[in-house]
Amino acid sequence: MFRALTPIQTCRTLCLPLRQVRWAGHSKWANIKHDKAKNDAKKSKEAYHLSHRIESAVRQGGKENNPTLDMFVEKAKKLNVSKAVIEKAIKRGAGEMVSDGPALSDVVYELMGPGGVAFVVQASTDNKSRTVSQVRNALAEFSATASPCMYMFEKKGEVVFLPKADANESFDDVFEVALDIGAEDVEEVEIDNIKMPLVYRLLCDQTEINNIVKELGSRGYQIQNSSIRYIANSDSRVPYPENNKGFDKAIDALDDVRDVVDYYTNIEDEHLHRLDS
């Protein structure tokens, strides 16, 4: 039986690496092909869920000085969610407006598959029985079953940003900036994308993500994406299961579950797949 859980938050200090240059195109995750139609569908699903996430953020932290709300509103704008939809979600969260649709609940599922592969799946649903069945069926492709694994992850802020267009800046320069604004980890990632061949990925305390985004913006960096994610602890990461085709099928099936907001694994280089999408 799957379980809906309240995320467990832990404190752990990460050491900034002296230098990390990664090549996303060489990730084992490249086995899962990037299909434009599928990527567009994922963006559409993300936009669909943002209204509920904005509402939940207001309910939990209010309308003012709420970094989580600010992050979701900015995301919604980037995905062309209308101003009216955003404003209605904020009003519903503040109790200023009654919802005209079914009430949604946030749920988190923990699963383990072969080879020690752990999954944390976030979903928003008006029918928990339907959602748990769909998630279970999707991950059955990889023989994954319900099992506690949250202890393998930490909830962190992740910010992906671009190099300054008009500056001859080294990684060491970016390292100093990251250190100055409170980052816990930073790396340089080369991407197989002509328009965006290089990005920086920064990890931080989840409560600091909004401040760090603002700091980076004020220093001339363009933010590509920011989110709060479950990041696998370094000692719990496992290799990509390249000999198990069922994993690829499971990920594709999970992407097709409408209620799934996001999912996380403890597989090495998971983020390289996302950045290269």
Write out key terms for the chains shown.
Alpha-Beta Plaits; 277 residues; globular; single chain; alpha+beta; 9 strands; 2 domains
- By CATH, the superfamily of the largest domain comes out as YebC, transcriptional regulation domain
CATH class wording of the largest domain: Alpha Beta
Stretches with pLDDT under 50, minimum 5 residues: 1-26
Number of strands: 9
Q: What is the fold's blueprint, element by element?
A:
Layout: E1 21-23, H1 36-61, H2 67-78, H3 83-93, E2 105-112, E3 118-125, H4 128-139, E4 145-146, E5 153-162, H5 171-181, E6 185-190, E7 198-205, H6 209-218, E8 222-232, H7 245-255, E9 260-265, H8 270-275
Parallel strand pairs: 1-6
Antiparallel strand pairs: 2-3, 2-4, 3-9, 5-7, 5-8, 6-7
Description:
36% of the residues lie in helices and 22% in strands. The protein has helices spanning 36-61, 67-78, 83-93, 128-139, 171-181, 209-218, 245-255, 270-275, and strands at residues 21-23, 105-112, 118-125, 145-146, 153-162, 185-190, 198-205, 222-232, 260-265. A hairpin with a 7-residue loop joins strand 6 (185-190) and strand 7. It folds into 2 domains: 34-152 and 237-275, YebC, transcriptional regulation domain (Alpha-Beta Plaits, 2-Layer Sandwich), CATH 3.30.70; 154-232, YebC, transcriptional regulation domain (Alpha-Beta Plaits, 2-Layer Sandwich). The chain starts with 20 loop residues before the first strand and ends with a helix. The strands form 2 sheets. It has a 5-stranded mixed sheet. The chain has 277 residues and is an alpha+beta fold. The longest helix is centred in the N-terminal third of the chain and has 26 residues, at 36-61. The model is unreliable at 1-26 (pLDDT under 50).
